[in-house]
Write a structure and sequence with these properties.
This protein is mainly α and about 130 residues long. The protein contains 7 helices and no strands. Helix 1 packs antiparallel against helix 2, helix 1 packs antiparallel against helix 7 and helix 2 runs parallel beside helix 3. The protein starts with a helix and ends with a helix.
Length: about 130
């Protein structure tokens, strides 16, 4: 697979995960809205990593680590970094029972819609600013 094919692969997975997050929102599965938004950003970051490094992204889920190792963390605004920090623990916390209970209480429809909106915005920004040379 060429680097470009790998980038296209990651972008496709990111788009699919965003659609899944929106589907979970429609059926009120808020925990999975949060999880899929994390996955959306993780995969678009892995696309950017692949393009920038021309290498396989690390087998990790920590968004800031992927962006830092990919050499593009410094490209994000403070607001974007705050959102990345908000999303980052959702990958782990949705997987463990004690955290799930806590999250279910906090993930209201309003909060989840805000997470989806910010995810769409960050994903699109990443496509336009970090993958625009495709």
């Amino acid at each position: 697979m060429t680097t470009e094919e790998k980038v296209v692969y990651w972008v496709g997975l990111s788009d699919y995960d965003l659609e899944t997050a929106e589907g979970m929102m429609q059926i009120k599965k808020y925990l999975y809205v949060a999880f899929m938004c994390h996955q959306t950003i993780e995969k678009i970051f892995k696309a950017a990593y692949t393009q920038h490094k021309e290498n396989t992204p690390p087998f990790v889920h920590k968004l800031s680590y992927i962006a830092r190792e990919g050499g593009f963390l410094e490209n994000f605004s403070e607001e974007q970094i705050e959102f990345i920090d908000q999303l980052e623990p959702l990958n782990i916390k949705t997987r463990y029972p004690d955290y799930k209970k806590e999250l279910v209480k906090r993930l209201t429809p309003t909060i989840c819609q805000e997470i989806i909106n910010k995810t769409k915005k960050l994903q699109q920004w990443t496509k336009e600013n970090l993958l625009s040379k495709r």
